[in-house]
Model the fold of this input.
Amino acid sequence: MSSTNPNVFASVPASEPQASKTQAWDRRKMRPGTHERSREEPVIVATDLSREFKVRLDGEGFGERVRRFFRPEYRTVRALDSVSFSIWPGEAVGYIGLNGAGKSTTIKLLCGVLVPSSGKVTVLGLEPYKHRTANARRIGLMMGQRTQLLWDLPVKESFRLLGKIYDLSPETYKNNMERLVEVLDIGSLMDTPARMLSLGQKTRCDLALTFLHDPQIVYLDEPTIGLDVLARERIRDFIRHEKERGVTVFLASHDLDDLEIVTERIMLIHQGQILFDGPQKDLQQIVGGPLRTLEDTVKQFYREAHLG
Amino acid sequence: MKYLVYTRAEFLRGMRYRANYWATLASSLIMTVIQWSLWTAVYRHTDSIAGISLSGMLSYTFMGRVTAGFLAEPSNIRLAPRVRQGTIVHDLVKPADLHYQLLFQNLGSALFRLVSTGLPLLVVLSLTGTLIFPSARTLGAFVLSLLMGYITVFSTSFVSGVLTFYTKSGVGIDHLYTVVELFAGMYVPLQFFPGWLRAIAERLPFKAIYYIPMAIWSGMTAPGEVMSAILSQAIWTALMVILCRIVWSGAVKHLTVQGG
Amino acid sequence: MVENSHGPSKAKPVPEVPELKDPENGGFLSSLLGTIRRYSGLYFWYLRANWLSIMAYPAEFVMTNLAGIIYSLGSVALVWVLFTQIKAIGDWTYPQVLLIYGLSIFSRSLFHLFWVDLMNVSAMVRLGDIDRFLVRPLNPLFQVIAGYLDNDDYGELITAIILVWTSLGMLGQRTAANLLWVAISVLSGMLIFASVHIVANAMSFLTVESSGFTRLAWTVDEFTRYPADIYGKGLRTLLTWVIPVAFASFYPAQLIFRNSQLMRIALVTPPIAALTFAGAYLFWTKALDRYQGVGN
Done:
């Protein structure tokens, strides 16, 4: 539990009032950009979002182990503690936190993988876990350490299958493929089995797979992990390119250069609480003026808050 | 003897992965119940088959279940990863022989399975009164026979493992293991085999894995014949060990020439 | 650095998203039909992808499956050798026992071929791979099952077909109607085995130490290799009405045997299979809810 009062550092906006059910239905039929209202409504709203886990306690010593075998004892871990934020369409938000701070729990809650223990989250007007399939069609998720590619098959087969899973019409599929192949330069990889690709090539393909179905929101969890300097730049360029198209980007990464270049807004989570939420320059002001890089700024932030 | 340290280490390792212990016990019990039901039904209309009574048959089968973990096909003989990762170089350089090391290592896990799964099953079965216990002298012969059974089953897997690896065939004896089990007498005692099949079984080493020890225990081998059974098993076991040495020294030569 | 991120975005809008065919839209029947059509179509695509994967290693495929035939025949040898010494097991003759054995491994191999990736669910949960399935607009159980086609169980399938064909001939019952019934029975048996494994593997959503259940699920099908009446009354009742695996081989065979006493039970095989599967699926769904934290 942090000893500093989080409010000193946070600049979290007041949470949005809950949309009524009819509004939720209207929003589902709305396509972004086709209606003025969509520009003012946030696409993601988290209100007092909390998530707890029960962790089973192990015993020390034989006697305690036996006792705990018959009567298990649990400890409750608050992975997310009353977190609130709103994200607007087209924003690129960077999500920073130390390992175990609650980053993946947040993403899982936003994707509908986990259910909140308390509080609420809506994505494009829907609660993700309640409308899992509907939400799934509108979002994309990429995890840097894992691939969606089918291992033994040529890359193009993975695209075909995913196209079918998302029910893409042939023209949509064709258009999106053309665009993604060109921007990510993966045309030459299409006939290669996935297991023969380098990490950089795999990541580009995974990104293409993530954006294939025109998601409105994309969650990227460590997309550039393990990549060399040039590959990383290509990935960042691509993400920025998609941002230009209006996709909302939620980028969790330990690579703060990624965030510095791609995102405008930073959220910093620590032990389940958001300690900072605002533009990068606000973070700089808090640590007393712009430092060389975002990474320096963040490190200074941790130091000043006596964290970590 | 220094290799026993491998046995002990592997035995203790078994103690740590206790997660599905209950499931292993339950599986063992289920298999026993199935066998019991099957043989009882088989003997419903007759008292003796091929000279074997129901009680003899049950003892044969039950002891087989008790020792199933001990005589199970060893799965810890994997050369491919060692070569791929280069650790085989360490194995060849150590003042220990990989063949013997694996033999003793697998013995550790085999013993663990015997004690953790076999022993409770033995207790349960003896309480039902259907399990015949042999005399003390026969028991001694049984234990010796069981040990030789383990060495034989290990050798079978070892030879197959080494050969499979070097021929790169991808298909080893474990793909054909039911055939091994058949000729080992795990399904039915060898007395049940029609003449020509019995002749084949007698000329294969597999009966030394399972049939000989179980026949000794259940009394299918008359007390007077126990000594000769042990002798014949010893010969088979020794032959298999020699085969292992031959195959292994060939492999070592190959590896050192290739550079590992 | 970009402008204030709390206001409306000045970025260009995302191009029109195509009409989203949410199953939640429309009436119940039309969405049910739509769902069935969608999933059948998708299954074909998954099957195609899996088959291409398998065909990437043709030599291994052939070798392993040839060995598989020998492997299965080896286990059948028990029955064959036994019958060189005896005339019957209980009340069942050699061809009858053979048919029951054949139906058992037929159902088992069908289950193995199409559903075996269920046993990886605990690994998927442990590694977090199951989350990927939850982020796609597709039923997660479907993704687990459709995502893998086994490549080494065709040997058992071929053996099963040989056994069933041979024993039907020996019984003089190789009729079209019986063959149709065999097809129905083994599909039912497949569903029943699948149900057992679905429940066993769904346990990994509920507890970390779930591998024991998977292990046990594999042992349960051993009961079906022999006529179910070799078991005592209590066990037989368990295998008929609680974990109805006896419907995978024993009861369906009774219809072919024209066994007047048990023929009627034989006929409920398909409904039992459907009910069991429905129950297993319900359990899976509830367990998955627990994993996601519903009701925590």
Residues 236 and 258 of chain A are 7 Å apart (CA to CA). Chain A has one domain: 6-304. The beta strands of chain A are 44-56, 74-87, 92-97, 118-123, 139-143, 217-221, 248-252, 265-270, 273-279.
